[in-house]
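BUG-694 | component: ligand-complex export | severity: low

The export step for magnesium ion jobs runs without errors, but we want the raw record kept on the ticket for reference. Input record follows.
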Amino acid sequence: MQILRLLLIDDNPDDRALVVRALQREFPALQVEQIGEEAHLARALDAGPWDLVITDYQLHWSDGLQVLHRVRARQPTCPVVMFTATGSEEIAVAAMKAGLNDYVLKSSKHIARLPTAVRLALEQARRLAAVREAEDRYRSLFDGVPVGLFRATLEGAVLDANPALVAMLGYPDQETLIQDGMAAWFAEPGEFERVLARMCGDSPLRAFQVRLRRRDGATLWGEIHARRGPDGAGTLPYLEGSLQDVTRRKQAEARLSHLAHHDGLTDLPNRVLFMDRLEQALGRARLHGRRVALLYLDLDRFKVINDTLTHEAGDRLLRAIARRLEQSARAGDTVARLGGDEFAILLEDLDSQEGIAALAEPLLRTFDAPVPADGSELFVTVSMGISVYPEDGTDALTLLRNADTAMYRAKARGRNHYLFYTADMNAKAFERLSFETSLRRALEREEFVLHYQPQIELASGRVTGVEALLRWRHPEMGLVLPARFVPLLEETGLIVPVGEWVVRTACRARQGWRCNGDGVDLPVAVNLSLRQFIDPGLEARLYEILAETGMTGGGLQLEITETVMQEPERAGRVLETLHEMGILLAVDDFGVGYSSLNHLKRFPIDTLKIDRSFIHGVPTDLQDGAIVTAVVALARSMRLQVVAEGVETEAQLEFLRELSCDCVQGFLTGAPMTESELLALLQAPATTKGSGAT
Ligand code: C2E
Ligand code: MG
Ligand code: MG
């Protein structure tokens, strides 16, 4: 049974007894504190809270209205019932207006209503307490959440705003925020009206992302959720909503979107963004009848360059190239990295091909200056293909494909060029593709063969060496020469396995000639690409092949080019190892590269092969003659053997004989031939054409 704590105030003890009696039956758990004198009232109020106060109106020291105020001051929700004499009924009504719960007339007839009045008062108090509690909870939530909350009129006058909102928008206090109104929150002109119109619409909760302005002028991204408040009876329609600072989220989104649309290495737009911009540019060009050009750039021989550099240096090089392209493009043109060493540039607002060429030309020229790489400088060239809307395609993919095709043609033309796309290029591009595919299969299909070209010692007229030269027996094209496919082997890296096959085949053949009892004991020379030379497995593989064919190193000569020596440290190490294995080393195409004579001295080289472009000019071209003379003298002074390549005429031979050049190799003394042709030649008596010793 619930205890009811009653504070009963009446200066007449009989009346108090009357009250207690009247209530006791209905409220058996009644605990009554009776106050007759003012002196006791304060203490009694301190002893609260009370469940109920019943007070007489006419006290000799006060009146019921005053008591009501004193009680409520201490305990705002405490129910108070007044007990009055008939004459003070009007006063009691006034007290009701002041918040009194009920009153009962002080007569034996009316006292019977007292329990009902008390019950009603208690019930009323309970309801009030519940409402207050709900209100308190709402308030504490409203004030405490870290999300901005507001209520506003449909016109945007702020009715209420919580502290989080005040802080988020940088107001000193709630009042200022309310004064300034909602319109002051929005950074973009017109945004407030737009948002308000949409918030007042009748669908439930709406979310908007808007630029907000703090009171100090700073802007932030906010997300508003708002709706019309429920239309309660008697309340005006209003808006209620929340406002969150989503600036960080927006920034993160922007970062993500940047990452998704830019290349991590160069920070240029990537393929996705480039294609998007291209689509947009095409849309504009369609509308205004303008041209759009797509420049597709690819670094020449990047694979080879990249393989000789460290990973970081390769990255630095790409970044430097990206900056250079950006600087030389017009403001507003899109420069993108499509992947690897492929870049693309989008040019808009063009009206003629000449205009495009005028932009493409300087782009290529920016590569005339060397690019810093790894402490030294590298000369980089690019090949460029150009396709133009609407002539070469009306959609982005076709334009890209055609520019790519044109770029490949530019490369095939000898690199460092640009070419406009033409319709017949596609057929050629297809050719190249099938060529590359069949080249990839050539090794396993055993389509490669070696031809051998004899080297003749001038003094004796005897064959003193042979050079193995690679040929590809293409099922449809017939015998294909290395100039057509070796660059592709190098680019694709296939040169490594194919080169291994060349060395093994040449060594086996050479051993075969010896074992045949033919008494032929010639070193066989094999060409080595830079790509093979820098392959870390080179030495081990050569060692294996020598062991497997039972050959000593002296039976094999490797022909390297001067480019190998551009990196003297590494070249020195590798060449030293090969030399220790007994392998002979020749510098091929000597004179066309940049080898410094210093390097030559440092490396264990045995032979210099003078490039045939110099031999071609002698004896008539004086400059060529001077160069050949100097090289022969140089070789002699360094105790190197010297071979003249590409000897085609008697006059050339005579010139070389006079210089006392050691050996010649050329069509005159024997073009590259099959193995059996070579054996026949070797077994015939030494009647070599032009040999003075026979
Ligand atoms: P190279 O090493 O300088 O080979 C000499 C080239 O000159 C050969 O061309 C040969 O046929 C040609 N030649 C020889 N005598 C004469 C002449 O009197 N006049 C003219 N005009 N040319 C002559 P080929 O066989 O077409 O090879 C071209 C290049 O391909 C070679 O130049 C070499 O750099 C490369 N190569 C050939 N075989 C291989 C190989 O197995 N591996 C690698 N990595 N490269 C190879
Ligand atoms: Mg050679
Ligand atoms: Mg050569």
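Assignee comment: Attached the raw record above. The chain has 25 helices and 26 strands.
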